[in-house]
Specification:
11 strands, 38% helix, Amidase signature (AS) enzymes, 488 residues, 11-stranded mixed β-sheet
């Protein structure tokens, strides 16, 4: 049996049947990491000895396991706190930070028998769309090593795509799960804001950040999300809900489902190959009984400016704690307290993080708060209302994930505005706090993966995952993998 050809759920089932042992799965994953990570740079920390020791312990409990993902090797984005394991946010500022506690998401998956292989590379403090702003060097796309895997959860998407583990958990502030999932040919979902605890997630923009899974298909993501979701008293924004039934509700039946196609998402600026692939995905759903509804979403043009003002403002506030005094990078030479702050932050943060701190500080300043930040909040409310109106006419929205496939490394860093505009289809869901999913739907003329995005109403994860599952029952895009992560 070629383990890399299995999905996370298939491997979990094989472990429970006794066909594969947990140590065997762990060794296969660690061997793949050792073989490929030098080229991909998707792992920043590999906890090999720890993983093998846990695998032996988990093997003893296989017969009584009640999780479909028990013993399945996985990894965490490096902005999610793991007790005793270095958590850097891909920044010099936290290069040697080892958390004394686990994030709630980590606790929940560990309790279900998760087997962690290590921590995954990302854009520094999750600021970027290409996974190139990391202090530890860029992540490379397993489909083409000269291209970006997307960001900021680029290490997570690249690892799952290349077979370095069966699923990963990342974070999504403006598309940071969905965009790299699209560029690497895997499935990823950003859940409704508040349904997964953010306790232990190192903050970028607190009103936008959300933890979510990346897997090989919708069923894998549903199984992970069943374990992650749930109210947490340590996160004041977490919500009560009917959790834990996403996987069991995957029927593939989408008869009568109304799928909206916003005309503004298929116009100028979208590559022809991406447009054709996403519209072909719509046709697959229609052939399974869904209804396609054309609609207008004119507020899309406000999403990117509103998002970057709000996200930068919140980042400026959240990153103020890194001053070289309490923890994090401290400059070796300084003349006084003010110079300690200045030198520590100058040396500890990279260019993109500094750019967003400065932008956020500017829009929050007394002379510009009303002109920028207040107007961005008003635009956010308008976008939420537009989604409410859209979901009065349809059950889900189908859009591209990104205007084009994966860019070449270095293309975006010199043009930050172009990089920001690449988030035009993903940031609206974060502004409105809605669930959104990326699923593989084809390849362009250069053999690079294309992703389609499904957006649902609040608590609409079940609809999203079932629609994606229906699509994947009739297609095999999610089964394809780059050389090294070969699947059937």
């Amino acid at each position: 049996m070629e383990l890399t050809e299995l999905t996370a759920l298939e491997l979990g089932a094989a472990i429970r049947r006794g066909e594969v042992s947990v140590p065997q799965a762990a060794r296969a994953a660690l061997e793949a990491v050792e073989r490929q990570n030098g080229a991909l740079n998707c792992f920043l920390t590999v906890t090999g000895e720890r993983a093998l020791a846990r695998a032996e312990a988990l093997q003893k409990g296989v017969k009584t396991a009640n999780s479909p993902l028990y013993g399945v090797p996985m990894a965490w984005k490096d902005n999610i706190c793991t007790k005793g394991v270095r958590t850097t946010c891909a920044s010099r500022m936290l290069e040697d930070f080892t958390p004394p506690y686990d994030a709630t998401a980590v606790e929940r998956l560990e309790a279900a028998g998760a087997l962690c292989l290590g921590k995954l590379n990302m854009d520094e403090f999750a600021m970027g769309s290409t996974s190139e702003t990391s202090f530890f060097g860029p992540v490379r796309n397993p489909w083409d090593l000269e291209r970006s895997p997307g960001g900021s959860s680029g290490g997570a998407a690249a690892a799952v795509s290349a077979g370095l583990g069966w699923y990963a958990v990342g974070s999504d502030t403006g598309g940071s799960i969905r965009q790299p999932a699209a560029h690497c040919g895997v499935t990823g979902i950003k859940p409704t804001y508040g349904t997964v605890s953010r306790y232990g997630l190192i903050a970028h923009a607190s009103s936008l950040d959300q933890i979510g899974p990346l897997g090989r298909d919708a069923a894998d993501c549903a199984a992970v999300l069943d374990l992650l979701q749930g109210r947490d008293r340590r996160d004041a924004t977490s919500l009560d809900g009917d959790y834990g039934q996403l996987l069991s509700r995957l029927t593939g039946d989408v008869r009568g489902l109304r799928v909206g196609l916003p005309e503004q998402c298929f116009g100028d600026g979208l590559d022809d190959g991406v447009r054709r692939a996403v519209l072909a995905a719509a046709q697959v759903l229609k052939d399974r009984g869904a209804q396609l509804v054309e609609l207008s979403f004119p507020v899309l043009e406000y999403a990117v400016p509103a998002y970057y003002i709000i996200a930068s403002a919140e980042a400026s506030s959240n990153l103020a704690r890194y001053d070289g005094v309490k923890y994090g990078w401290r400059a070796r030479e300084y003349g006084g307290l003010h110079e300690l702050y200045t030198q520590s932050r100058t040396q500890g943060f990279g260019p993109e993080v500094k750019r967003r701190i400065l932008l956020g500080t500017f829009v929050l300043s007394s002379g510009y708060y009303d002109a920028y930040y207040q107007k961005a909040l008003q635009a956010r409310a308008v976008i939420r209302n537009a989604f409410d109106e859209a979901f009065g006419r349809c059950d889900l929205l189908l859009t591209p994930v990104a205007p084009s496939t994966a860019p070449r490394l270095g293309e975006s860093l010199g043009e930050p505005l172009k990089m920001y505009l690449g988030d035009i289809y993903t940031v609206p869901a974060n502004l409105a706090g809605l669930p959104a999913l990326s699923m593989p739907c084809g390849f362009d003329s250069q053999g690079l993966p294309i992703g389609a995005q499904l957006i649902g109403p609040r608590f609409g994860e079940g609809r999203l995952l079932n629609a994606a599952h229906a699509f994947q029952l009739d297609t095999d895009w999610h089964r394809r993998a780059p050389e090294g992560g070969k699947r059937t």
